[in-house]
Amino acid sequence: MTKKLQAGLTASGEELFQLLLDPDIDFLKTLLKNPQINEDHLLILLKRRDLSATLINSLYKKYKSSLSHRTILAVVRNPAIPGTLMRNLLPQLRLFELLDLCFLPGVTPDQKFAAERTILQRLPTTPLGNKITLARRGTTNIVAELMKEGHPQLFEACLGSPRLREVAIYQFLRGATASAETISMVARNKRWNQRPNLRLAILKNLKTPEVWFTLWLPKIQNHILKQLSAAYRTNPKRKRLVDIELKKRGEF
Fold first, then answer.
1. pLDDT tens digit string along 81-125?
2. What's the rounded Cα separation, in Å, for the pair 101 and 112?
3. To the nearest 10°, the Cα dihedral for 73, 75, 81, 83?
4. Pick from 103, 101, 155: which is nearest to 128 by CA?
5. pTM of the model
6. In the structure, what pLDDT confidence band is assigned to residue 163 with cuts at 50, 70 and 90?
7. Contact, 146 vs 138, CB < 8 A?
8. C-alpha distances out from residue 61 to 10, 64, 66, 108, 168, Å
9. Cβ contacts of 114 within 8 Å, gap of 6 or more
10. Tell me: the pLDDT tens digits for 164-208?
């Protein structure tokens, strides 16, 4: 055994903190066998971004029965974590620890995807208050999924998210959970109510309150009005509103 490996195996707790900075991955594996190594040492080691998947696996297998929650969190946050181990550990993380992982600098796409998917799987049993916080802080995919629920308070939080995308609102407006209340929330929202595609989706929805026809029809281009008239063939009341505007313009 070389002097370096021997030194690693017999180093004191204080000496280990310095030795854990060594770039040699094989030497780091030797340090894991040192009886003086403890959680503080592991946390220092897991902050390194240059570890290998095999080292992470070795660390977890050796100490898994005694790892604290914060050490498990440090393992999951390390970019070298193997995919299988990550999938096994993510269920042990708390909801907002998973969310923080999605935005952690240096996180890999696989880590973000797995954390996001775990959050989405938990949504059916997540309390409304936590969902509202997720809507304000969540990723684009999380916000889009929460929006589909159609709960007015949650929907309002989703509309205020800086990560919300127009396509998510458009899909919601064409879906079954849209209500007169949530449709009006979009129509009143200054960030979204000027988007042509969203306005058209609102006007095509059978649940849209008539006030939005009154306010918006005079500003809509002729060819779009004709599209709406055709879309409302089976709804005489709505078709009449559109046709009245077309007559005013001599287009009917």
1. 999 999 999 999 999 999 999 999 989 999 999 999 999 999 999
2. 7
3. -40
4. 155
5. 0.88
6. very high
7. yes
8. 21, 6, 10, 22, 42
9. 83, 86, 87, 90
10. 999 999 999 999 999 999 999 999 999 999 999 999 999 999 899
Residue type, 53: A
Work out the pLDDT band at 252, boundaries 50, 70, 90: low
- The b/e string for 187-219 (b: 16+ C-beta within 10 A; e otherwise) is bebeebbebeebbbbbbebeebeeebbeebbee
CA atoms within 13 A on the CB side of 95: 18
Q: Which structure tokens are listed for 79?
A: 């970019």
- Which residue is it, tokens 């006007």? 203
Angle, alpha carbons 169-149-185 (nearest 5°): 50
Q: What is the pLDDT of residue 1?
A: 55
Two tokens at 39? Answer: 């959680």
Where do runs of H (alpha helix) occur along 11-159? 13-19, 25-31, 39-46, 53-63, 69-77, 83-89, 95-102, 109-122, 128-137, 140-147, 152-159
Which pLDDT value is given to residue 56?
97
User: Which pLDDT belongs to residue 233?
Assistant: 86
Which residue type does 184 have? S
CA distance 213 to 215: 5
